[in-house]
Amino acid sequence: MERTDAGHERPGNPPHPVFRTRLIRRLSALAETVRVVVIAAAAGYGKTLAVEQWIRSGAANAARFRFTDPDNAPRIFIRRLAETLDEPGPPESLAPDAALAGLLDRTLIIDDAHLIRPGPVADLLDGIIARAMPGHRLVLVGRSRPVLRLGRLSGAGGLAEFGAAQLAFDHEETAAFLRSVGVPPSEALVEAVLRRTEGWAAGLRLAATAVAEQADPVAVADRFGGHDRHVAEYFRDEVLRDVSPSEVQCLQRCAVLARMSGELCDEVLGVTGSQAWLDTMHRQGLFMSTSDGGDGWYRFHPLFAETLLARLRREEPEREPHLRGRAAGWLEKHRLPENAVAQAIVGRDLHTAARMVSTYGHDLLNTGRVHVVREWLLALRNVVEHHRPLALTAAWTEAFCGNPAGALRALHAAGRTSAAGEPAVPTARLAIVRAAFAVDGVEQMSTDAGFGLDLEPPGGAWYPLAAAFFGIGHLLVGEPRPAVRGLERAVHLGGEQQPAVAALALAELSMLALERDDRFVSDSCVNEAWELVGDAGLQDNVFTVLVHVAAGRLAAVDGDEPAARRHVSAAMRLYASPSPAAFPWLAVQANLGLARILLTLGETPDVDRRLAEARRHLARLSTAGVLDRELAALAAEAESRRSAHAGTARPSGYVGVALTAAELRVLKSLRTHMTLGEIASELQLSRNTIKTQVASVYRKLDATTRTEAVRCGRSLGLLD
């Protein structure tokens, strides 16, 4: 095993507890063309153990040599290598390259190869590699990639490299290791240990010791970290002892960063040249790995980062807020708001954090990152009441999480009078959110949203929201012409900035088209909505519930019962969580749409449950527009279906099929003295379409005249 202090080696641990089957298979399966194998990772990754197991598994004719610093002198290296191989030393007169070549007739494993310095020994090994005979292989094991010229081998298939990612224990190996040291490996414990150690072998040993014989080992594993005394001692003795004090100080200060680049470290440390320093630290095996974000980005192993951060807080406690403040500024400037907000929050710069969350939170909500924004708001919960822009973001976030009470509280905080020096909230945005929540009923929605349309710039992020709720407000009071205009504008301008609300608008347009029997437009709108949902990761967004309803209605009309049921199931999942409760009009629409689908599928008991839910949310609206009449029509249809199923006589005013929203609008117009042509003009439909819808209304209401249809509609509660 790799060297560890007595304080780090745990009594009772078997020397080779887990055979690394996966890793050994890969090593043993290397092609004959591979002349050099590099096994490089930081201390404690089990490199020595892996090589021992590889040799024992049958790696033929392999010799092993541990490199030391004096071996950088060619004669010393050759003499010691000959002694290790139990070979007579070559004559002093023999050139070093010839002497070395004479010794290498087998696979040679060089441990601690990171100690090889640029110079004559490195040149000797480069020459040997270039002239290697078939069957000869050099295995270089160390804490970092050796300084040899290996680049030319990569393209020719002559090089195989195994790093920390390949040496890390996987789930099965971690479970086997815990079992071998007497710790029962439950699924939750294995996941917790892997999450904290990332498969680092020495970390597994330390974690196993920490959780052994604990009443709640999973909780202990979740808390296991760089603050653990044994972890801190390991990093001090095995890693940081070989690093200069000034570099240790820089590492500690960089530990405030989740990810590091040269430019970011320059800003945080107040220096230049950090990229070269980071690259060097990475090559030296200092528990750093490459990170997402492009070339030159690194991150620390989490346990190493926690150890460094604990040292920083102990040695320079006043410096952390300053470092995090500089990091937050750089990250925001370079369009990395999530990282910037995290730095501001941890650095306790709550005013800056509140400004950032209110600036960038909405963008994250619209791309499915609701949980991120809610975590920020939880950290800033004592600030929300005193920061109006943040309160508005909180209102929208709580609505997306299905918390209507929290959404309305935050909206109230956003709308209060500003204190002196406090950032203001644009009144247009307040009006848009009031429209979304239908605070004053559906009949006020279009007015509130229209106010936002007048004041928000068409290219702004809030404009598509205003357009969508303007259209929905008109739709819910039976005014399809302005409804379509608003919804189409929301789709046109919101696809990139507001994909969630654009998908909602498309679902509304699809159902409108379905009611006027325009299947092509209805299908197109649903398909476009699904593209937005998929591209933006909105599968769990509350507005997606109506996309499922629209798709389910199309499937039901087509007789595709399996697809209809899938969409009903998906919509019900979203209805339960996150729930559209903060948008009561949406909750009513979703339930009525689901009831229509279920009615088509013959699921009358489920229809009743959906109608009961619709009534519950309808009661929260001060004005309901056409929603109450649609609910009454569906309730009458459900009752008629039950009566027919029970074999009872059809009641007077029997509604054979529930009236669609379009048919309800036509029925409402039949109360007036307008001609069919005037009704068609008012509803922006062709005269033929109106005639078709009137005929459908007569048939469903069992009426033969306009007067009978209106009377029947009133008796059923479809008309005021």
What is the spatial order of strands in the main beta sheet? 2-3-4-1-5
**SS element count, helices:** 38
Overall spatial form? elongated
Biggest beta sheet summary: 5 strands, parallel
Look at the structure and give the mean pLDDT: 89
Amino- and carboxy-terminal Cα gap: 85 Å
The helix content, as a percent range, equals 55-70%
CATH architecture of the domain at 427-625: Alpha Horseshoe
CATH superfamily of the domain at 427-625: Tetratricopeptide repeat domain
The counted number of beta strands is: 7
Broad structural category: mainly alpha
Under CATH at level 1, the class of the domain at 427-625 stands as: Mainly Alpha
Q: Strand portion, in percent?
A: under 5%
Overall radius of gyration = 35 Å
What features would you describe in this structure?
The protein is mainly alpha-helical. Among the domains are: 21-167, Rossmann fold (3-Layer(aba) Sandwich); 427-625, Tetratricopeptide repeat domain (Serine Threonine Protein Phosphatase 5, Tetratricopeptide repeat, Alpha Horseshoe); 629-720, Orthogonal Bundle (Arc Repressor Mutant, subunit A), CATH 1.10.10.10. Helix content is 61%, strand content 4%. The protein contains 38 helices and seven strands. The protein has a five-stranded parallel sheet. Helix 5 (120-130) links the parallel strand 3 (107-111) and strand 4. Helix 9 (187-197) runs parallel beside helix 11 and helix 33 runs antiparallel to helix 34 (627-646). The longest helix is centred in the last third of the chain and has 20 residues, at 627-646.
